[in-house]
Every structure is written in structure tokens, then in C-alpha cells.
Amino acid sequence: MRVICPHCQNKAIISSSSKLSDTVTDLYCSCSNVADCGASFVFTLAYKHVLSPPHKSVKELAAALLIQLPAEERKELMQGDLFG
Prior knowledge:
With 84 residues, the chain is an alpha+beta fold.
């Protein structure tokens, strides 16, 4: 991934990152043109939307999510009217 300095349009260097959520990350950057610019800034990298659906079926994705729930929450979900 290439980040471009918004001030001078030169290549920037990503020094660190901070994950804000599963789909959003802040990238801490500095301009590689130290002599003329030297700016430091934060870019936000975010998931936007799907271009092609995952290879797993909806059933497999749902099962993977359900397995991650605690047993009591899984039981409540199955007994609720969500599937009614």
C-alpha cells in the first residue's frame, strides 16, 4: 500500500498503525521528502463495501459467528423469534 503526502505529493512512510475496529485503522505517516516538507499526518484506512462475496456460504458464515457466542447467548438466540 502506498500513501502519498497530502501536502507535497511525495511518498509517505507509515511508521505505525492503530486499529480502531475490525474495519478501520489509523495509519501514522511521515513524508519521505524531509528536506522540503517533513509533514507528519494520520490517514484512516477503512473497509467500504464488497465487490465479490466471500467463497463461504451464508450458512458457513452464520455457523462461524454462532460458535463465537457464549453458550447462553447462543441458546437465547435460537429460542427467540428471530427465526420465527
